[in-house]
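Hi,

I'm pasting everything inline rather than attaching a file, because the server keeps stripping attachments. The sequence lines come first, and each chain or strand is labelled.
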Amino acid sequence: MAALDRSLISRLPLFRELTPDEQIELLRSARSSRYAKDTAIFEQETDAHSFFVLIAGHIRVVRTTPDGQQVIARYISEGEIFGVAAALGRTTYPASAVAAVDCVVLAWPNALWPELARRFPAFGATTYRTVGNRLQETQTRVMEMSTEQVEQRVAHALLRLANQTGRKTDSGIEIDFPISRQDIAEMTGTTLHTVSRLLSKWEERGIIVSGRQKVTVKDPHRLVVLAENRDKG
Amino acid sequence: MAALDRSLISRLPLFRELTPDEQIELLRSARSSRYAKDTAIFEQETDAHSFFVLIAGHIRVVRTTPDGQQVIARYISEGEIFGVAAALGRTTYPASAVAAVDCVVLAWPNALWPELARRFPAFGATTYRTVGNRLQETQTRVMEMSTEQVEQRVAHALLRLANQTGRKTDSGIEIDFPISRQDIAEMTGTTLHTVSRLLSKWEERGIIVSGRQKVTVKDPHRLVVLAENRDKG
DNA sequence: GGCAGAATTTGCGCTGGCGCAAACTCGGGG
DNA sequence: CCCCGAGTTTGCGCCAGCGCAAATTCTGCC
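And the predicted assembly:
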């Protein structure tokens, strides 16, 4: 197998604090894979063998309840590390990771984590910082689900997606991977019907444009107002 | 100031992997404080100066929304580390910590974290594992809030409290700190009224006994059934 | 180019749980 | 021992949003 090229990771914040030589060394123990759209990188409850960095694409992290309902824990964007649960002491993955589009992924065996974290402290520190951020984001989500109405939650979710993965087009900020009403419902704890009704209403008002598996935010400002207003519009 | 005694921490899992000498050294940089019931150990959004270990008591971690609503992020029990956000790269506390009863707490300046984590790897590793667990717990909570009815959520919350902080008495498992209907509502994303109605119903059925700021679980098994059943009772 | 299946939209009725309000109870401080 | 205030209970009306169902519109594949 040919060695992986340093250019794969040198532009990513996660590796930026490493020297070129360190980057090369880190890559030596990595394996690169492609995943077609809608295939799983790993499955909930299975043995955690590796942790990953997303090189290209978008990944949906999904938790499934015992009775089969799904909840989207988060989306992973290019450059992010994921599947690190085992680095934090778990032996199985707490969720599944599914390619939202065709993806390229680097994988390291979990067994290497302690050694890598020791040898590349900046890499370990960045990872722990990421985990800390995710904990806070998740708690924010709990707060939103406790205190906000569905309309506000969906507005918040769209704004977050637009900020994190939005691509500026001439007609607004487009979420740059396919996302269905059902997906948005699973992110916000509601039903696809309610999401559909909300998006229709917002489209009438010119706040967004949406199509099949596609949403473009035209007027983020008004969406912010919706997200923050405590009373109805 | 007198040196802190090793017996304070030697029984705690967090420090168990350290040698007696290491424990003593770790304590050298710690400061011990008492907090009266209902006083804050730290406040949301303030500069994170320290991280903490709870030696005695119970602590409520609370996040407040911009418009003043409160959500209880979690309860901290004896022996747990808390206020570690800064160790994960944050500069301010993302939540407030309030003593649910009179508490004794050890505090370390955050500036020491990198050094301590390096010098006592087992201590660092345990902490990161704790953070990982909390991330997973929080995601589980998101899942519950997305897919379960209020009754199930409250049942789950009580079971968790009973397991984590329950004290066996002759009449059942008693949650061993004062907890109001309002508190339970803030843990489960509902109102104190609904919690009160549920507890009354459960008390009629002999599943629990409750009083002012007190809940005793008499029949955990039936509570599990309520927590898991997808249809109404 | 047409078709099958997936995604979306929309109508309608119902209900879980909230908001409001009032009464009640308990426990601690004076 | 009594009083005050915090905590709790309970009734009542209402409505946001769900469940169900059916129609409609894409879109990728054959």
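Chain A is about 40% helix and 25% strand.

If the labels don't parse on your end, tell me and I'll reformat.
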